[in-house]
Amino acid sequence: MDRVVAVFGGTFNPIHNGHVEMAKKALALPQVEKLVVIPTYRPPHKDAQMLATGEDRLNMCRIALIGIGDVEFSDIELARGGLSYTYDTLCELGKLYGKRAALMCGGDMITTFSGWYRYIDILKMADIIAFRRIGVDNAQFDASVEKLRSEGGNITVIEADIADISSTEVRAGEWDKIPSKVLDYIKEKGLYGVK
What CATH number is given to the structural domain containing 152? Predict the structure, then answer.
């Protein structure tokens, strides 16, 4: 079996326990050789209010995921600037690693995937690791997976119940949903108004 590089992109504003669970599940897959974590510069589908700097978000990812396996951290989207489109990132990663990518997607992302920029090209370039998430309608998730498969997508569904956590909830004060060392960093830097 040809092994792949799992690509974990996101705003990570901040990274939370759900992200950490997803990273561990991806690394446990036999086809995954390594994980590359890529914070977005500016997500095309999200309002970027209270967005910590790219450097801080990258540092928080390092703190949260260090020691869980073969993980690399990339600033390619931060360095590129502008809106962060997955298609552009996969083109760059193909040149860097010379291996097929496997794009990690939460259930909410799977249900909107067909609206992504050049999504058919993404399906040709990369496998998809789809995480069923609590809080995402199962029927909608399954229909979206089948649609993407019918369009040529090679999709692995992870059935583990990943905690339904959002970074928005964390920033609103649910600090128990992030690794304690990440909270220490947030306090040290005074991010999100936390002292």
Answer: 3.40.50.620
